[in-house]
Amino acid sequence: DTGVSQDPRHKITKRGQNVTFRCDPISEHNRLYWYRQTLGQGPEFLTYFQNEAQLEKSRLLSDRFSAERPKGSFSTLEIQRTEQGDSAMYLCASSSPNRGHTEAFFGQGTRLTVV
Amino acid sequence: DQQVKQNSPSLSVQEGRISILNCDYTNSMFDYFLWYKKYPAEGPTFLISISSIKDKNEDGRFTVFLNKSAKHLSLHIVPSQPGDSAVYFCAASEATSGTYKYIFGTGTRLKVLA
Question: Which of A38, B38, B76, B111 is the most buried (most CB within 10 A)?
């Protein structure tokens, strides 16, 4: 199966620790998105990559958050000095640039719990 | 500032009947709309999309209608099946953003009763 893969699926961390999540998009997709979803809300946009270039960051993404896509393939999202408010589902999605607008395919998400 | 709104948090429908899920948006620059379905502990799954140049798109049991003047779209599921029970999100995107990012509503939980 060549869907979007996220690792880990679950992460429990103590407040103040750093965490890093990985996303492997569908291989031919060069658009990659990170979203965050909390209970009762829809996914909220965090950041977007086209190939290795990070083209947009949401105001939701504080200085403690950083994302990379070093070779235009997989991406990582790091949260430094985690806070309880960071507890959420972190979703990665990818899409193909071959047409202007196209649907994005999401991974299973990484559930982060900060205790 | 909620640009995409789903005002019904939940909906219950009898199996075999029609499910109608609604979505409103405020940004007139949105030109592409999508519906996703989400089961617990999974990522959203793409269902169907529609471009602003159309007013209807159909795929099997799923039909999306777009009313641009009202800034309203709806998803019709006919006939509804118990396996359709999930949370449904509408999303919108604008080409002028350059990133084609999707703005999501808060979701409607559909329960199809057997």
Answer: B38
